[in-house]
Amino acid sequence: MGTGAFYLLRERRFLPFFLTQFFGAFNDNAFKLAMLTLISYHLTHDQAQSEFYQAIAGTLFIAPFFLLSATSGQLADKYDKALVTRVIKILEVFLMIIGSFALYWGNIFLMMFTLTGLGVHSTFFGPIKYAILPDHLPQKDLLGATGLVDASTFIAILLGTTMGSLSIGMNSPKPYLAIFLTVLIALAGLTSSMFIPRAPSPSEKIKIDAQIWRVTYKMLKQVTEHFGILLSILILSWFWLLGTVILTKLPDYTNYVLGANNAVFALFLALFSVGIACGSVTVNFIFQGRINLTMVPWAMFAFTCFSMDLYWATPETEQGLLFSLSNFFTCFAHWRIAFDLFMLAFSSGLFLVPLYTYLQVASPPHGRARVIATNNIYNSLFMVAGTLMVIGLLHFSAEIPQIFLILSLLNAVVALLARIYLKRVVLPAK
């Protein structure tokens, strides 16, 4: 284990699944950004209208997580997870074909339909993403495998976001590159899914409850009966609230607070994604495959320190021309801000991976996917709460650096509570 978990990338029990989830995360973001770029630069000529479509897109993508996560968890627990994954990937290929026509015709309704379909695709794949790992790997490999999956997810999001936006030309509305890219990646995901080993259900007698609200309530209630699982889900959901607030305000922070252009924002986004990826991979080097939650509150305290320093490092707003990437780093405070962004993301990776791994080993094998699905529901609720929190703080005239400060102080309280209550969590035996 001294070389980390990278040896898993050479093994069929992990590599095909690893590639499949990477391609899926990439494509979700590539299509979404290609679509929004096309709408913003070529199909609308009014900022308010463009922002309206952005809000609609975000809502349509996340809505399936509320509505269908319970169903997706049941399906993943009842049927072979590898088979379900292949069906999902076939759906993605058809969605990308529909999306190709939508981009080519510039049909906003069809784009929104495709994006909603991708939200459904992600909702049904979400429980499998972590629930399938214990089916193929021994417990000693789960921490490293989870770290690789988390790291690759954020890198895929970064690459998909970047390439999706760049695939739409600023001067020409022809989306040929975006069409080629998204269809090719969907086919690559389908191909890799064909090599995922079987992961049969330990309990095929599970009955699918079609009453969405009833089964959702039942799943939300069931996790409250297991203290460790509930606590892990709440901390993970808190991370998604933090991430939502930071990434929502990062463009405005870069532009209006720091006075920097979109190239600097792209760098900040890259630092955040790479920081989480590095933290996710580092966990396994520290614990050598052992599932240990002692680092979680300390990593959260580190997040507080770096996000608080982000507030203190922010200079007074400067008027005039926007900083370009080449002259942005002539100021030491800007280096400090970049370092803080990377390190708070790195700290996030350090506490994400142990918690996701704990969920895998603490959940009963016959209900593991439903536990992960429940986690996804909580995550979505907290992300919405984060958005509402930002709206509320802005309504009371809070400035963006002040929002970051408030976030860091709240996180310190959550970290303290995590430190107290995680001591009560009993780790499963190896």
TrEMBL record:
SUPFAM superfamilies associated with the record: MFS general substrate transporter (SSF103473)
Molecular function via GO: transmembrane transporter activity
Localization of this protein: Cell membrane
Pfam families, per database record: MFS_1
Key words, A-Z: Cell membrane, Membrane, Transmembrane, Transmembrane helix, Transport
Record-given protein name: MFS transporter
Lineage of the species this protein comes from: Bacteria, Pseudomonadati, Pseudomonadota, Gammaproteobacteria, Legionellales
InterPro entries named among the record's database cross-references: MFS (IPR011701), MFS_trans_sf (IPR036259)
GO CC annotation terms, alphabetical: plasma membrane
Top-rank lineage group of the source organism: Bacteria
Matching CDD domains: MFS_MefA_like
Membrane disposition: Multi-pass membrane protein
